[in-house]
Amino acid sequence: MAASDIRPAGAPVPPPRRPLRCAVVGLGFGRCHARELARMDGAELVAVAELDPAGQGLDLADFSTSLGARGHRDGLRLIAEEELDAVVLAVPPRARGKLIRAAGDAGLALFLEKPFAADRRHAEALARLCSEYPASPVMLDFCLRHLPAVARLRELLAGPLGRPLVVNADLMLPRDDSPGWVGDPGDGNGVVNENTCHLFDTLGFLLGEPETVHAEGGAYRGGRLEDGIAVAIGYTGGAAAVLTGGSLGVRALRTPAALTVHAERGQARLTGRDHMFTALEWATAEHTEAVRESWQPLARGRIASAALRHFVRSVSAGTAPEPGVGDGIRAVGLAMAVRTSLETGRRVPLNRPGGTP
Fold it and tell me: What does 285-342 look like in DSSP terms, one character per residue?
């Protein structure tokens, strides 16, 4: 028993900490977040909202009842009427400004689906809005950095492997996998902004601040926006990464994910399927055999489970969850820098803070 658990005889037992009262607005992929919160220790799913349940193939009453939550058609009304501590906004970027303001006015913590914004200007506007509510912590759903395999790799880079030098990463969505709003330049603004942002954030988590971007690729399948990219990114301190991303994959391969790091004293490789890293192989120059570590694969719909646990625990403890608004701005900035590089054929410098060109 820890010393902190020992109470003087007759001392009152402190009341248990109340679960964090949560709601989810937007039940596309947000339905996965709702299910996760409904089963999570330390959280209570109070309510869910979806403007167009039929469009999501959802019976709102049945879905909300199955999770022990109340169902709403209007996210603003949900925020106004329910007793909450936090809200997940799983709605496209264009729809979230009013919801962020309502949540801030209510003093709620915010968990925002990616991408943070449609473009650089929109990101700056949303960041200003969030800054009006310093008492409302904001976390972005860049969930790959919270996967146990990625967290373990970061530990190794801070320890036996040493400083990362050169990285290669690949994450390619299946073609025709994204909802229509992703291809709207005023909303999702393309698969690179909406999904390759996961790699942008993971690389930043491992390597630090990006400084330059040079991209090749294009709209290979005839759309308006790029759907396949190969990008070189330079980082403060000299590390370099090459990543491939977009939506040129096929469903049969189940969205393989791979990331290899060559570091000062060794090498490591992350692999997995269904958009997640679940295996790690690593060694230093002194090893004669590689060390292999693995984690139980999760269903695709549970990809954000570790990120949501971090959010709930951080907000409950009064600490800032990560990643935050600055990381969201940085990812949008990188996506826009990729587009600029594709258009100009040039390397694009990034200005700190925020990683925007």
Answer: TT-SS-EEEE-PPPPGGGTTHHHHHHHHHHHHHT---SS-HHHHHHHHHHHHHHHHHH
| Helices of type H across the chain | 30-39, 60-66, 75-81, 97-105, 120-131, 148-157, 191, 197-207, 305-317, 325-344
State how beta strands 43-49 and 20-25 pair.
parallel
Kindly give, in sequence order, each residue whose CB lies less than 8 Å from that of residue 267, ignoring residues fewer than 6 positions away.
161, 260, 261, 282, 283
Kindly report whether the global pTM for this prediction surpasses the value 0.85: yes
Q: What residues in the chain have per-residue pLDDT under 50?
A: 1-15, 353-357
Q: What residues does 292 pair with on adjacent strands?
A: 281
Number of residues in the chain = 357
Strand 164-174 to 240-249 pairing:
parallel
Q: Are 226 and 350 in contact (CB under 8 A)?
A: no
Q: Does residue 115 have a cis bond before it (omega within 30 degrees)?
A: yes
Dist. CA 338–CA 348, nearest whole Å: 8
C-alpha span between 181 and 266 (Å, rounded)? 42
SS3 of residue 128 by DSSP:
helix
Q: What is the model's pLDDT at position 122? A: 97
SS3 116: coil
3-class DSSP state of 91: coil
DSSP string, 209-229: -EEEEEEEEE-TTS-SS--EE
* Relative orientation angle of helices 197-207 and 325-344, to the nearest 10 degrees: 110
pLDDT of residue 351: 74
Bond into 134 cis (ω within 30): no
Give the 3-state secondary structure of residue 350.
Answer: coil
Give the closest residue to 302 by CA, choosing from 43, 46, 34.
34
Residues 242 and 165: their CA atoms lie apart, in Å, by: 12
Asked if residues 271 and 258 have their Cβ atoms less than 8 Å apart, the reply is yes
Instruction: Look at residue 11 in the predicted model and tell me its pLDDT.
Output: 46
Pairing relationship of beta strands 228-235 and 240-249 according to DSSP bridges: antiparallel
What pLDDT was estimated at residue 17? 77
pLDDT of the residue at 205: 98
